[in-house]
Amino acid sequence: MDCIAGSASWPETQIGGELAYTAGFYAALRPAVFLSYERDSYRGVEDEAFRVTFDTEIRYRQEALTLNSDPCGIPILPADQVLMEVKTAGSLPLWMARTLSELGIFKTSFSKYGTAYQTILLSQQRGEQKYA
Question: Three-state SS for 43?
């Protein structure tokens, strides 16, 4: 938060550099939505660039936007759904492609922020009030 306020320097890391550039380029940038989720992450043994993550309890809110706030909010997905992300630098390992095919799981696009944003816009259009 001190970096955002300008009272501290950004860390000298890749992410710190990207954040510093973004904050400078978009001077009027301000927090608008808080996203939180629980993540289980796995990495390939033979290929460390191959990763699979499972996100649950994906929530958003438009108040209490600091990182030291509790991770409460409005759910994006039903409680029985999990978001699986498969990440690889190249093609999927054959065993994974077969497993996903056998289970009827196919590639799709999903944005946690985009889904929260759409939900916010639809709620505003309908005049709804949602509470976490």
Answer: strand
